[in-house]
Structure formats: structure tokens, C-alpha cells
Hints:
The chain is α+β, with helices and mostly antiparallel strands and about 100 residues long. Helices cover about 30% and strands about 15% of the residues. A hairpin with a 2-residue loop joins strand 2 (about 45-50) and strand 3 (about 50-55). The longest helix has 14 residues, at about 60-70. The mean pLDDT is about 85.
Amino acid sequence: MTPYTAAQTLKATPLLNRARLFLDLGGNIWRPDRDPWVYEEMLWLVELHGISATATTRTEAFANWIKQATDQTAKRASDGRPECPYNGQYPAPNKIPVEA
């Protein structure tokens, strides 16, 4: 699953089920330390597809991850949809050489 597809799936998932779906997609979630010494230890950290996001709440961390995954996707200039490798065209058919 691409980061864009994962972001759209997470965005459509109810808030109570996002953590479970995030883990099912192969993501990692780290909760804040109970006794933090520095500011970074007070943040939630989520990571999936090489994209990491942090925030003070888990819900906000998921929202930041979704925004980063969506922003990193190449988009068409005309309508903002994700760039398609075929640019709307069907893939070329496989030509099998015919021997005479």
C-alpha cells in the first residue's frame, strides 16, 4: 500500500479505530515516557512507510502523519489528484511475437 492510499484509508477510518488500523498496516506507535526529562520524551511518535510524525496527543500525531503522507505525494497541477504513471491511459498491451 502506498503512503497516499494509507493516508486516505486512515482519514476515512473513525478515530477510535485508527490506532488498530495503523498497526495493521505495519506502522509503529510510541507513547510518551511516564517521567520525561526532555520535551521530545513527552510526544507521541508514529511511523509508517518511512514517514514519522510527532504530537502531544495520539490523534494529533495521526493527523500530522496523514498530512505529511498526503503532502509528499506527487500531484497533478490541474486538479490536485495523485499523479498516475499512465496519466489516464491504459497500460500498453503485451505484444507476443508471432512466428511465421
